[in-house]
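Case study B.
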Amino acid sequence: MKEAIFKGIIAYPITPFDVNEKVDISLFKTLVERLVQSGANGIAPLGSTGVLPYLSDEEKEAVTEAAMQQVSGRVPVLAGVSCLTTERTVYHAKFAEKAGANAVMILPMSYWKLSDDEIFRHYNTVAKAISIPIMAYNNPATGGLDMSPVLLKRLLQIPNVTMIKESTGDVQRMHSLRKELGEEVAFYNGSNPLALAAFAAGAKGWCTAAPNLIPGLNNKLFEAVANNNLKEAQDVFYKQLGLLQFMVGKGLPRVIKAGLNIQGVESGYLRSPLAVLGDEETAQLKQILATLN
Amino acid sequence: MKEAIFKGIIAYPITPFDVNEKVDISLFKTLVERLVQSGANGIAPLGSTGVLPYLSDEEKEAVTEAAMQQVSGRVPVLAGVSCLTTERTVYHAKFAEKAGANAVMILPMSYWKLSDDEIFRHYNTVAKAISIPIMAYNNPATGGLDMSPVLLKRLLQIPNVTMIKESTGDVQRMHSLRKELGEEVAFYNGSNPLALAAFAAGAKGWCTAAPNLIPGLNNKLFEAVANNNLKEAQDVFYKQLGLLQFMVGKGLPRVIKAGLNIQGVESGYLRSPLAVLGDEETAQLKQILATLN
Amino acid sequence: MKEAIFKGIIAYPITPFDVNEKVDISLFKTLVERLVQSGANGIAPLGSTGVLPYLSDEEKEAVTEAAMQQVSGRVPVLAGVSCLTTERTVYHAKFAEKAGANAVMILPMSYWKLSDDEIFRHYNTVAKAISIPIMAYNNPATGGLDMSPVLLKRLLQIPNVTMIKESTGDVQRMHSLRKELGEEVAFYNGSNPLALAAFAAGAKGWCTAAPNLIPGLNNKLFEAVANNNLKEAQDVFYKQLGLLQFMVGKGLPRVIKAGLNIQGVESGYLRSPLAVLGDEETAQLKQILATLN
Amino acid sequence: MKEAIFKGIIAYPITPFDVNEKVDISLFKTLVERLVQSGANGIAPLGSTGVLPYLSDEEKEAVTEAAMQQVSGRVPVLAGVSCLTTERTVYHAKFAEKAGANAVMILPMSYWKLSDDEIFRHYNTVAKAISIPIMAYNNPATGGLDMSPVLLKRLLQIPNVTMIKESTGDVQRMHSLRKELGEEVAFYNGSNPLALAAFAAGAKGWCTAAPNLIPGLNNKLFEAVANNNLKEAQDVFYKQLGLLQFMVGKGLPRVIKAGLNIQGVESGYLRSPLAVLGDEETAQLKQILATLN
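Model:
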């Protein structure tokens, strides 16, 4: 069995910008600190929530370094390094390793659809260039490519590809993964509204931006599952479902930023073309958050 | 809260045919008896498994009456009465009530897509014509129409529409149903590979043809959930998942018929154009069943 | 090359009902007569427009006979005989042949998805039972099954399967059909908004309910194509596109019935659950029709 | 009516790489020259075929400048400038204008799905920063966003958004565009297998990589349409359809590169993760090309 570094709640910080749409590293550190203190079991900078693909090379490096400094070993760090080209992915994976990240997360990105062989070579090339583990990330909605359980099984033959993050939103994929790959496969859920179903299916952790807003409820769900208490898990899940659905429906960076504002936490600006939630949506979010406190 | 007559495992018998493709009522009764004795919490003749739409009016009546006689009150009976026209649906719903069915299941069927208003009127007309409860059944894959949670909520305003069966295969629909309709809504799972996720989401029962082949495993899953034992439920679920996926992939009537044959139980013939599994598929099924004993 | 009986505009009458939702044969004959006199190149009773699947066996027979009597050899007749079971399809195909139909149209219908082998056997069994030609009809939106060009090629190996009607709404299917099956394949378009693209792709005819409302424009499109006048065809097509899109969007039987009413032609009632267009939709249709006169 | 700079065949060069996966500007110029000399009515560097998103800022600039130098005013140049962020898109649009491009093409790119308002602001911000016309490009398969006819209509209200390129592969979109936007809208087809249907629908031009391999057939199709000769257009179209379908199925950069090799033209290397066609696919392509000579 391959070792799984991460379990439980793996929290995704946003990447905040200043009024000129420059990355605000100082505010980023503050937001990371909140996540660590709220009880997250891991921190994952430069994920989808962290708008990785919208950043320049230099910005990605600065964010990775800031995350490592702020977390400072209190929990493991999973750094996003996905790029469209293999060469840039290798570059950022090596940077993350050198900066001290515990693992890297890689989403195969599409402009041109990639064949299974192309995807395998992409992962294999990156994997050979680093010594830390890789989490293979499947998210057709953002990355544009859908990796089948068969391909994921093949990727797991690469020695340091040790974890899978599944974000299709279809729990049957997780069932197939576990059936195909065996009980010991370390798979993680990246689809927020599937949190309960994924844990029931055996997911080792939940990769989520929700702890920016509702860390207590997120932690309680994991605890109920760990305690084998299905009824409690169901109850805690339905409490937070409204927010999880809203996050996915409106886009994580937009909702987390707006939610932090509502909670009185500075959250900076977004980078265009991404724009803040409109007034009506903000009011909806306010109402959803109000019912959770 | 509306009363839910059914809970646990609601078992679907196939409708067997003789060599001339005529319904074999005697064999049907034998197969129903097996289901009752294996511990099913309810019996549902004339479902998709029972190839309802492939039968004539007279055949439907004969099957309904045979089911009532054989079950003889030991468990509740849910009779399928779905037809393309409202007039025929009313006719068979009244027949089922008179025959003693505890409830009827109605799938809105499509040749022409129906508007929400047309679907509502269809249910309302049938509901007014009978006194027993109705289970509204959503299964776009067979019926061709997908009822949204909003429409299902509207249908539940009809007094004797008291239960919902969800078969889209997307557990998020069940989450939305429960969120939209409240904790007390009686929803049932009709998608076999979702059995675990659906119970975790709060489904009151599992409508399934699987007890024709593996009643013990089906019952154990429901018991583990009822005992709030998530780990046991997960374990029992993964044991039977291979068969559940195969059943859905190849079509319930084909697989149940073939599986009964493999188990040495007479199962008759199918009605054309439905045809028996090929040799390769039968060998696959044999292998799957072998691992379950 | 197989002979193609039909070309140009093949017109679909609705099946009108009386106030008690019984088929109104007398009115049906009147509507068929209008289509013949308006210049249709063929008449196709019991199509989707004619709500075939909503009729009883006796009603189907009465409609077929009425169509033959009224058309009386002036143009060829294509009778719809699709049923869910092979046995009923054979029955109605034989009835249509005896009644004098020039060909039958068969849509493979789905409740349970059929395999390619099951579909082939279904057609082959019917084909052997009759001597007149068969038009194989592909329409996943109504029938629930999508026949690939490869399967259609296989069906054309059956001697009296001589024509294909394509209604997926994707012109690339027609391109593939012609590429796969050769220049001589007789394929027909059943997707109204594709009328121009299909003729450009080489379709021999257009199976359509539109001549109930705008026969002149339909005929002109075919003539422009026959005259190799692309610019004229484009012009005539865009004139009628609004109606064609509305027909498909709201459902053919509903729109034809409402449109005939608007034009002052008696059109009877629909059979439940199908319901008449609402006031707003009727007003839209009135406006579309007004621009065409 | 807004002026349309482009008509007919707008040809897309590939961006060739050397063995170290660096852009080979000299070879790029050679390939552009071939396109101009083969009779293309316009040249479009940095399209999907030119793997725009896989290039660095500096590479994009070098390619744009090289194209301008090589074309040298013989035909108009349409420069691709699409980027994920608004800021980078503005940057490259200004660069293209300064370099002398006649227009820029902009595809709204998705990682996070964009709202209609976000897309509108994106285009509007770029449009205000330049004086040359913009072609709005809709291609959900590569860009991940699908712009509705309603949104495209809104974009055309921006003064220098004057052209639309539609690449959904659904000719009904073009019908709706023309119906929604009027006869004078300048829309272009970007879906190769739709070339005939798009011209029949009124497309002003065909944006295609095919002239790298079969310029004669591409030009003949446009000429037949311009001569109002539908039968000839149909004939020429079916001759080239096999190649057009293969190009789309396997990915434009891979197929153009392989096809040039087969034709004895140097075409360089691809940038990873994009990889060359396998042996079997190359053999298929060889056979397709052989039938066209």
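The two ends of chain A are 41 Å apart (CA to CA). The remaining cases will be described in the next quarterly update.
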